[in-house]
Every structure is written in structure tokens, then in C-alpha cells.
Amino acid sequence: MSISKAEAGAVSIRTGRGRPPGSVPLPPPARSRRGGEEAAGRGPDAARARAMADITSVAFLLVPSFSMIAFSSAMEPLRLANRIEGHDTFSWRVLSADGRPVAASNGVEVAVQGSFADLGGATAAIVCSGVDVQTFDHRELAARLRGLASRGVPVGAVCTGTYVLARAGLLDDHRCTIHWENQDSLREQFPQIDVTEELFEIDRTRFTCAGGTAAIDMMLALIARQLGQEVASGVTDQLIHHRMRDGDERQRMELRSRLGVAHPKLISVVGEMERCIEQPLSCVDLAEGAGLSTRQLERLFRKYIGQVPTRYYLGLRLTRARQLLLQTSMPILSIGLACGFVSASHFSKCYSEHFDRTPSQERRCNR
């Protein structure tokens, strides 16, 4: 089997070479909640379907501190699809704001082939971002993305790249997803956007994923649409990925795995705590909901978690508050209220005791 150019070395600038029309029949979309939108025919829905079926020349747009695992998980399936096909169906370019190398969140610098101004010719663009995405100036990138989208070019994101698309106004009236750690802050800043908790979302000409290895599953779904299930399955095997996950699968481990606990009533109570952050429930309410007495509930928490329920619950709320402090520009009082604290002073006192710094110090140090 011949080895493609993309496999031979570093990423290179190439002109995308799409397949002749009709050479490979497209499989039906992996999942669709909008009947008829991707059916063949005329009109805007058919145009979107054709655009999604022509993702052959991909521009990866790197934002400083991008997630290396999400970036490589999005690129490698394209390289392996070329290898399985025996020729370069897919090509790609890696771009940065100024055409200079970009450091990922792990400190590794990645060479690029141009700047965001060199997006011409791309049949799809993928924003790759990571930690502290909200601290960077995305105005130029947003303008470039809006230009692509206005021409019907599919635009996607991995990890916190969803935030960049949202800032550009490209996710209004679209479903999208983002890493679970950033979901609350995205919802707070963009209440008009339909943010789901799914592994990845493909909604018309927008595609987003939670980051990490979820990027593999999103790209496998796109490859299956374009080249068929057999090629996508071959890529899955090459990656030793075991199976193609559906977009609606959970991002996080099940609670029993995260906690290392199998007690069903304890898991039920912790799940209820995670759902009720803004309006915390009392121990009495939590115990009654699980069919326990408050004393039984406390014994369960001490035995399996090593904390009383109130302390554990407070930790969950403060962790959520810290995420909002670092990921949004929400006023500190608003963050406190969103996490169930009745006043700024109460929030600051609890936060200082837990993290050994005040909320304002936390935000100032991060900046």
C-alpha cells in the first residue's frame, strides 16, 4: 500500500483534491434531528449537505494554549483515511494569527503554514483552542470565520474552540457542545445558544466537540458521511479506538466510576447535588429524596467519601464558582449567586477558606 504525502512527514500545504462526483455514495448521516435537511435536492438544505460532503481541504486554526490532544485527534483521522484510501482525499493546512508557531497548553510549539489571512481555498475550518480561551483577542479570527460561513463553508471547533465560534455569532440557532468544564460558563455568556452535554454535535454546517478524544469520534462521523462506513471503521481500527462513539454519548465517566463507589443511594444523592448548584438542597431534602434519614446519609458520606454531605456539597459549588471566575467576566456577586451563596461576603469567606485566596485574588492572579 502506498504511503500518502501527509504520512511522510510534517504537515504540508497542498491543494485539496476532492473525489469526482458520484464516485463514492454518501451514507446517510450518523444521526439527524432535522428531517430532510440533509436530503439530496434543491434549496439551502441540499447546499448545506453538499458543503458537508466536500470537507477535503481543512484549515486548522490554532489559538494559543490550544489542546494538543484535541488538535491531533482531529487531524490524525484524516491522515489515516488517506492511507486507507491509498491517495490524498484530504489535505490540510495549519494556521495561526500571525503565521508564527503556536504553543499548545502543554508547552509544545507547533509550526504553521500561514496566517488566518490564508484561509482561501479551504472547504472547512476547525478552530483548535484550550485553556484560557476567553483571555485572547479573537476579533480577527471571528471576522475570517464569518467570511467563510457567509460563503457556506462548514466551520467547526474542538474543545473550547466552540467559545470562539460563539463570540463570532456563528452558533446562534445551532446546537453545539464544549468540554464539560466549560459548559456552564458558555451558557452564562451566550444564553441564546443551544449548548448540549453531548460528545459532539453536527448541526447543518457547524460541527463542535467536547475536546480530547471526542474529536476522533466527530471526525470519524464526518469521514463516514464522505467516504463511507468501511473507511471510517478502518480508521477506527488504525487508531485502536475500539469503536466509533455516537455524538449523544456522555462526556464524563459515570458517577460510580468517578467516585469509586457503587452504593446506589449515595450516587443518587451526589447526582442531585451536581444538578442543584444554584439552589442547593438541604441535607433533609437530599436524605428524603434518597429514602434515608439524615443520620444515614451522613454515615454513607463519611464511610465512602470521607466527608460530611454539607462539606462535599460546598466543595462542588465552590469548584463551579472557580470555573466561572476563570472562564467568564461575570461579576463576582453574580457568580456567587449562581452557585448558591446568599451574599458576596458569604461567598468570599467560603471561597477563601477552601482555596486560600479570595475570589477577586483568584481572578487577578489568572489575568
Radius of gyration: 23 Å
Shape: globular
Strand content: 5-15%
What order do the helices and strands follow? HHEHEEEEEHEHEHEEEHHHHHHHHHH
What does this entry look like structurally?
- There is one protein chain.
- The protein has 367 residues and is of the alpha/beta class.
- It has two domains: 5-238, Rossmann fold, CATH 3.40.50; 255-366, Homeodomain-like (Arc Repressor Mutant, subunit A).
- The model is unreliable at 1-40 (pLDDT under 50).
- Helix 3 runs parallel beside helix 7 and helix 7 (214-227) packs antiparallel against helix 8.
- Helices cover 44% and strands 11% of the residues.
- The chain has a seven-stranded mixed beta sheet with strand order 5-2-1-6-7-11-10, with helices on both faces.
- The chain has helices spanning 5-8, 44-52, 68-85, 139-150, 161-167, 183-189, 214-227, 229-238, 255-259, 264-275, 283-289, 294-304, 309-327, 332-338, 344-355, 359-366; strands spanning 57-62, 91-96, 102-103, 109-110, 114-115, 124-128, 155-158, 175-177, 194-196, 200-203, 206-209.
- 38% of the residues are buried.
